[in-house]
Amino acid sequence: MTLQKNFWATNLKTLRNRRKLSQDLLAEQLGMTRSKYNAQENGQTVNPTVEDLFKISDFYRISVDNLLRTDISILSDGQLSEIEKGNTAYQKGEQLRVLAISTDKNNRENLEYVPIKARAGYLAGHNDPEFIASLPKFSLPQLPSGNTFRMFPTTGDSMLPIPEKSDIIARFVRDWKHLKPQTLCIVILRGEQDFVFKQVTQQGKEFLLESLNKTYHPYTVPISDVLELWQFHSYQTQILPEPFTETQDLSRSLKTLQADIRVLLERAQK
User: Fold this and answer.
1) Residue 4's pLDDT is what?
2) What are 209's strand-pairing partners?
3) How far apart are CA 52 and CA 40, in angstroms?
4) Out of 84, 182, 199, 250, which could bridge 210 as a Cys pair, Cβ 3.0 to 4.6 Å?
């Protein structure tokens, strides 16, 4: 089963906060009780009535389709203004990130795997429910609930010490504005035939992309060229770590000795 991500509840909160309205005042203007509105904003109302959909759509001048299917929290004020003006390009989602997901028979999100042979096709099919449905899928225990995860294979040595050909499990990033500097991410870039695994830092209207392997030089890309960000969660590999060398063992022992000395000095000063 495939479906589009439903952003109704998060969009209500985003739009209300942008207008700096309290729930009480907004509910009054919409002609509904605060408890009814609060249930919708908190995701407790799974199927809003058609009347409520139209009320809120008319109030914000945003189509029902965009309220349900577009993550408004990631839009700039200019993009939101275009939606409010009825710009058809934005209404169709041609310039927005619409996340397609798949679910199991119990309506739980699957963990899709993007194999090597599908990497080039992911750029065109990342928001196509049929393409996502065609990907291998499975589940892993103990992944944080309430998030969307996907697995991507890596190639090359730019992210050493993470071994080459590791499979990266990553969480979909909905709000880019709160991304911490040098966050490890799978980056889906517009116009690329592939995706990259880099440390990501936002710098104005650009992202700085850095490799863990410092022999690779950092570079910047316009934010407008980024289609998706998937934040690193964990990785799987079939490569065993190399055994410690005598030098590494000596270095580790020296660090332990230095820590012990600091503790003794701190106690002597008390």
Assistant:
1) 55
2) 200, 219
3) 10
4) 199
What are the φ/ψ torsions at residue 172 (nearest 5 degrees)? -65, 130
Mean of the pLDDT values across residues 154-162? Answer: 86
Helix, strand, coil shares of the chain as percentages rounded to 5? 40, 20, 40
Q: Give Cα 266 distance to the centre of its chain.
A: 44
Predicted pLDDT at 248: 58
From the list 115, 119, 118, 200, the residue with the least C-alpha distance to 159 is: 200
* pTM (two decimals): 0.57
Do 14 and 72 contact (CB within 8 A), yes or no? yes
Sign of CA dihedral 164, 168, 172, 176: negative
Q: How far apart are CA 186 and CA 233, in angstroms?
A: 11
Question: pLDDT digit string (tens) for 172-203?
Answer: 988 887 889 999 999 988 776 568 999 999 98
| Cβ atoms 218, 209 nearer than 8 A | yes
Backbone φ and ψ for 118, nearest 5 degrees, come out as -100, 0
Contact 192, 134 (CB under 8 A): no
Q: How many CA atoms lie within 13 A of 199 on its CB side?
A: 15
Q: Calculate the CA dihedral of residues 204, 177, 69, 188 and round it to 10 degrees.
A: 60
Helix (H) or strand (E) holding 235: strand 226-236
- Residue 108 near residue 139, CB atoms below 8 Å: yes
How far is the C-alpha of 67 from the C-alpha of 7, rounded, in Å? 7
| Residue 264 vs residues 254, 260, 261, 268: alpha-carbon distances, Å | 15, 6, 5, 6
> In this model, does residue 1 exceed pLDDT 80?
no
